[in-house]
Design a protein that fits this description.
The complex is a heterotrimer.
Chain A lengths: L3 E4 L2 E2 L2 E2 L2 H11 L5 E7 L3 H7 L5 E6 L8 H11 L5 E5 L2 H13 L3 E13 L2 E8 L4 E8 L4 E5 L14 E4 L11 E7 L13 E5 L9 H11 L3 E5 L1 H5 L20 E5 L5 H4 L6 E6 L6 H4 L2 E4 L2 H14 L1
Parallel strand pairs in A: 1-4, 1-6, 4-5, 5-11, 6-10, 7-10, 13-14, 13-15, 15-16, 16-17
Antiparallel strand pairs in A: 2-3, 7-8, 8-9
Helix pairs in contact in A: 3-4, 5-9
Chain B lengths: L10 E2 L2 E2 L1 H28 L9 H13 L8 H27 L15 H31 L15 H33 L10 H15 L1 H25 L7 H10 L17 H5 L14 H9 L5 H5 L1 H4 L6 H15 L12 H5 L2 H5 L6 H5 L7 H13 L5 H13 L24 E2 L8 E4 L3 H4 L1 H16 L4 E3 L9 H5 L3 H18 L3 E4 L2 H10 L7 E3 H11 L13 E4 L13 H8 L5 E2 L29 H11 L4 E4 L2 H13 L7 E4 H7 L3
Parallel strand pairs in B: 3-5, 4-5, 4-6, 6-7, 8-9, 8-10, 10-11
Antiparallel strand pairs in B: 1-2
Helix pairs in contact in B: 1-7, 1-10, 2-8, 3-4, 4-5, 5-6, 5-7, 6-7, 8-10, 10-13, 20-28, 24-25, 26-27
Chain C lengths: L1 E5 L2 E3 L8 E2 L2 E2 L6 E3 L1 H17 L2 E7 L5 H10 L3 E5 L9 H14 L4 E5 L9 H9 L3 E10 L3 E7 L5 E7 L2 E5 L11 H6 L7 E2 L12 H4 L2 E3 L12 E2 L4 H14 L4
Parallel strand pairs in C: 1-6, 1-8, 6-7, 7-13, 8-12, 9-12
Antiparallel strand pairs in C: 2-5, 3-4, 9-10, 10-11
Helix pairs in contact in C: 3-4
The chains are: A alpha/beta, B mainly alpha, C alpha/beta.
Amino acid sequence: MAQFFAYVQHADGVIEDTAAELAAAAKAMGADSVTAIVTGSGVDAAASAAGEFFNEVYKIDNADLAYPNAEVVRKAVAAVVPAGSVVLMSHGTFAMDMGPGLSIKTNAAYIADVTGIDGVDGTTLKVVRTELGGNISTHVNADIANGAVITLRPGAVEPAAGGVGGAVADKSGEAGDLSAKRKFIEVVTPEAGGVDITKAEVLVSIGRGIEEEDNIELAMELKEAIGSKAEVSCSRPIVDAKWLEPARQVGTSGKTVKPNVYLALGISGSFQHLGGIKGGIIIAVNKNPNAPIFQAADYGIEADILEFIPALTEKINDL
Amino acid sequence: MEPIIAPAHYSFFGIPLVLLSIAIPLVGIGLWVYIMAKRVAPLVRARNDERMDNIPQRIYMVIKIWLLQWRQPRYMMAGVLHIVIFFGFLSLALRSSLLVIIGVVPDFALPGLADDQIGGIIYNTIKDYAATFVFFACVIAAIRRGIFRPERYEVPERFGKNHNAEAVFVLMIISTLMLSESMFDASAIAAASVAHGESHFVAPGTLAWFFNNIFVGTAETAPAKLQTIHIAAYYVHDFTFFFFLCFLPLGKHFHVITSLFNVFFMRIRKGNIKPPVYGLTDEEIENLDSIGVKKLEDFTWKHILDFYTCADCGRCSDNCPAATVGRPLSPRFITIRGRDAIFKNYPLSGDILKSPEVIGGVFEADEIWSCTTCGACEEECPLGIEYIDKMVDMRRGMVDNGEVPQTLQKPLQQLSKKGNAWGKAPKKRDAWIKDFAEEGEIKVLDGETTADTLFFVDSISSYDDRMLEITKATVRILKKAGIDFGILGQNEKDSGNEVLRFGEELLYRELRNHNIEMIKQSGAKRIVTADPHAYNALKNDYPDLGIPVEHISEVVARCIKTGALRLNPVEDASKVYTYHDPCYLGRHNAVYEAPREAITAIPNLRLSEMLRSRDRSFCCSGGGLMLFYEPEEEERMGVLRVKMAAKAGANVMVTACPFCMVNMEDAIKVANMEDKMVAIDFVELIERHLV
Amino acid sequence: MEILVCVKNVPDTGEEEIELDGNDLDYDELTYVVNEWDNYAVEEAIQIADKVGGNVTVITVGNEDADEVLRREMAMGAGNAIHLEDEAFEKSDAKGVATILKAAVDKGKYDLILTGAQADAGYGAVGGMLAAMLDYPYASLVNKIEVGSGKLTVGREIEGGNTEMNEIELPCVLSIQTGINEPRYVGIKGIKQVSGVDIPKFAASDLGLDESSVGEEGAIVKRQDYFIPEAGEGAEMLEGSDDEIIAKLIEILKANGGL
C-alpha cells in the first residue's frame, strides 16, 4: 500500500477547512494512515493544527517557504515524500500551480479536480470528475503503482472527523536545495469597487423579482452570510434600472460566469440570461412555478424571494 | 438713372472703381476655384461608388428632394424658413450674377429683362420680394438660433463647442447681401425719381420699397450721401457675394454648392448594403488585402460628398434612437467629424496628410457598433446623406482588423459553425414541426418534396421558445389561407441580415450562398417570412434569387381582401391597440399599410397610432447580432418605445418582428408596465382572430 | 522572442446541452473550436511579439481536424504552426501530451511557451508537466505579463480576485487565464487566406518518441466513460415547510462548494 500524504494549506497559523476533506479522501482510497505536509516559515501552529486530522504531520520550516511559491514548495515536497506515494491537495490555484509539476518530478499519476472517489482496486484508483466545463461527468481510472498526485474539489467529500492527534515531525532538514527560477514578489488586491462576478464561486443573482432598489440589500446580506467566495450578480433589468452596475450582469450581453452554485433569485430565465451561465448548479427561486428558469435549473423552489432571501440569510448566519 | 453715377463710372480719389468691379470677381472666382480644387482632391482619391444608375429616378429625386424641398417641412418651422431662403437664393442667383456684370457694364441687361421691360419689372418684383423674405427668414432664423436655441442644435461636450456662431455669422452674411442689394437698387431708383420725377414701380412692402421711401428724402436733402450709399451698397454686396462664395466650401454651407449633386447621387434603392468594392466576385473579395474603411480614402466619393453636404441641421440625430438613449453615437457628428477630418487632411495650403486610422483617429469603435441600422437618420436627411453603408464599411474594417467586441465574437463564430448566433444544433432547427404532428404535416422542401411557397423561418424563430409562437401562428395562418407551403428545415441557415450589417462580409456571403442554393433547390416559386430581417435580406441583399419575397403581413392583407382569411371581432373590445413599425419592414421596405389593413380588418379593433409611426418609427433597439452587443446607454430604446405606446393611449403593442418582440417584452418588464401593456406579434393577433 | 503556444481543438459544448451516445459523447453532434484559454494565450503571444519583436508558433497534438484550429490561430496572427499528428498519440493522457510536446520543443528553441490554463478535460496539467519535463520555471493561471530582460513579471490569478505577482526567468512555461486580454476576432477572410499555407506535421518517429510512452498505451490516467449525473426534466423542486426547504437548500449549497 502506498503512503498517503496531504499537502495542507494554511494562513496565519490556521489550516484550511479542506484539510479534513483531504484526510477523508485518503481514507476513501484505503489509506490506513495519512501524513500531512505543512510548509512555510514559522509553521508550528499550523503543523500542530493539522495533527487534529492526520496521523502524522511533516513540518518543513524554511524562510524560502514563507510564501507558498509552487516551484519552491514542489522541491520541498518532492524531497520528503518517498517514491510511490499518493499526495493529495485541495483543488485550487495553488494545487493547479504545483500539482502537475510535482507529478512529473515524482513520476506519479496526476488526477485533477476529483469530485468523487469510488475506491482503489489493486493499483487502480477509481474516481469521478467532470469535463467540458463541468457539464458532464466521467469515471476515471488511474494506475497509481508509482504513486499519484490528486487534487480534490473542495466540498467533494465529507470532511473527516478531528481528534486524530498526529505528532509533528520536523522534516525541515530534508528539504534540500530550495533555489528557484521563479520568485514571488507580492499579492496585489484589487481596488475596492471592482467587482468580478466571473471569479465568484457562488453567485447570488437577482432578477426582477427583487421588485425595488431597496431590496438589493437583501441579496447583499445573503452574499455576506455566504462569505468571500460569493458575489452578487443580476439579470439585465436590474442593470437597466441602474440598481446594480453593469459589471454584475450575467447573460449574453453581460458576463459569462462559471460559479459552483448559481442562485437565481427572482430571475425568470430568458435565454439571453441563461446563455451567460456556463457551469455549476443552478438553484432557482421564483414565485412563478412556470418560470422558464425552472427548466434550466437543477433545483427549484417556488417562493417569493422577498421572504425567502431573509429567511435563508438568517439560517446561514446561524450555522 | 443719370443722377446717380453707377459703380462702373465712379472714381474714388481719382481711381476708377471699375477696377474694383473687375478685381473682386477675378480674385473671388480664382480663390473659389482654388478652394474647390482642394475639396475635390479627396473625392478623386476616394473609393469608387456606383451612382450613375437609374438616371430618371435620380432626376425625380432632385426635383422632389432638392428643388421641391420635400423633406424640409418634416420640421415645420425650420423647414419653412429654409424653403424661403432656398427659393430666395434661387431667385436671386440671377440678380447677383447680373450685378457683378453691372459693376463693369452699368447698363447691362438680359434680353427682355431690362428694368423698363415687362420681364424686368416682373423679375425685379420677384427678386425684391425674395430678398425681403430671405432677409426676414434670416432674422427669424438668427433669433431662433441665438435666443430660443432649439435643443437639436446643441453640441454635446465631447464633440466640442456649439456651432451657433457659424450659423448666425452666415445668416448675417445673407442678410447683408439682401440689404445691400436692396439699398443699391433703392438708392438709384430714389435718385432717379427725385431728379426726373420718374416713377419706377417698386414692389410694396419689400426692402427695396422700404429703402426707396427713406432714400427719396435723402435724395432731396443730400444727393451726395445717396451716391455714397449706392456705391457702398454695390461693393459691400460684391465683396460679400464673393466672400460668401469662397466661405461656402469651408463649412456647413458647403451644402449650398453640393446639395444638388448629393441629392442626385443619393441612395435610390432601400434596404440593401453596398458591396465592399463594386464589381468583384466572392473570390476577389476574399483575396482583397483589406476590406472596409480603415483610412479616410477608403470611403467612397459619395460618402465624402455626404460629409461635405451636411448642413448641421441635427435632424438625423434628433431621430436617431441610439443618440436618443444616450449611446455614444450621434449621426450628425459622424458626418461633421468626417468632414472636419477630410478638411484637416486636405488643407487649403500645404501637402495632403497621411490619413489617421478612421477608428480611433476620427471615430470611436463604440459609436460605430452603437448603430442599429434602423435608417431613421437617412429617412430624415433633407440632403440625401447616408449612414448605414458607412457604418457597415467601417465595421468591415474593424472586423478585418479583428477589432470586434468580445460579446459579438462568439455569436459570429456560432453563425459560422452552426448557422445561428445562439450556437444551437443545426439539426434542431426544425424540431418545432413535431408539434404540428396532429395538425397535419409540415413539408420540408428538399427538392424532392416541393411546394409553391417557401416559409423562411430564420434563426430566432426556429429556436427561441417565445418566438416559436410566432412561427406556429404563421404556420396556422398559411394553412388556413390554403397556401401550399413548406420550410427549408435543417437546410436553412441564418439569413445573415445582421452578419452583413455587422461587417462580417465573407461569413454573410457564405450564409447567403448556402441559402440561395437551398432556396433554388427547394423549387419554391415565392417566399414568405414573418421576420422582417430575413425578409429584408432575402429581398434586398440576395442577388439573383429570382423569386418574389413577401412578409406575412402582405400575404395576410391580400388574403383578407380575397376572402381567403376571415376574422372574428376583436376578443376584447376595451383594449386599445397600437402598431409598431419594425424598421426592416417599414423604413427599409415601405411596408406600412399591409399590417395596418390586416389589423384594422379585425372588427371592432381600436387602433391608435403613436406619434412616431410609419417612416418615423422608433427602433426597438435592433435585432440579430444587436441582441448580443452591450452598448453604453442611459436608457433602453424599447422602454422609450413602450412609453410612446402608452402615450398613444394603447395597452396592446402589435409588432411584426421577432426581435421587436424580444425587446418590447423586456422593455415592458423594465418599465414596470406589465399591468398596463402587452406586446403581441402581428401573426399572433391575426391567428387568434381567425374564423 | 520566440514564443510557442500550445493549442487544442475542443468540443464546443457551451451553448447546448451535451448529448451522449451511450456512455460516450455523440461525436456526430459536436463541433470543434479552439480551446478558449488557448485563444487568449495566442493573443497574448501576438501582443508580446508585436511589442518586443519575435515570432509566434502555434502547436497542437491532435488528429487531422486539429488543422482547422492551427489555421484559425495563424489567421489571428501566429506566424508558424506545427501539427503533431500520429495515431499513436490518440487517447494520450496529460502526461502523454506533455511528453509529445516536450519532444517537439526540444527540436526548436523557444524563449517562452504558453498554454491555456485548462482545456476540455479540465486537468490544467499539460503546461505544468511540460515545464517540469523541460526543467523550466512555470506559473499557472497567468493574467498579466510584463516583459523584462531575460525574465518576465507575471501576475497569477489566485483566490479572492487577488493577483500574485512573480518574477520568472526565461525560458519558462506559463498557463494563461482568460481575461488576460481581449482576443481579436478571426474572420472568415483571414481563415480563407491561410487555407493554403503548408503546416509541417510530425509523427512519433519524427520526434524520436517511443510509441509506448504516449497515447493510450502510455496513459496511466484513463477516462472510462461520460455520464450525466442528474437526469430528468427541469429542476428538482424542493418541497416542504419553509424550514425544511431551507435546510435542504443549505445541504445542496454545502455539497456543491457553495458554503
